[in-house]
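Morning run. Coffee first, then this:
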Amino acid sequence: MLIGELEKASGFSRDTIRFYERIGLISRPTRRANGYRDYSEQTLAELRFIRWARQLDFPLDDIRLAIPMLKNPPVRCEQLLGKLAEKRGELLAQIAEAENKVRILDGMLAKLGGAA
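And here it is:
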């Protein structure tokens, strides 16, 4: 697929796709006879994974570790599984902290006569 098609399918801009290609984060495309890049479905899968991982605040270095594991079927990687479990723990801790802050605010509102 051409970069315009990949841009639409992935939601990433051309500049971002080319940046990820330049730093080796996604698979290098083949070239058509006319010199245009021809991206594969694998590249689209990589970009979708990158979007998901960035939404979870994974740094590009951790994403780079995971990309080779995206083959079909995926390769099991203990290091990657560990990073995912670590991220899950961080998010659960953030949730617990936010819930505690809500309880404190609720107590302050109740004490000051406001509604919770």
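The beta strands are 30-31, 37-38. Good start to the day.
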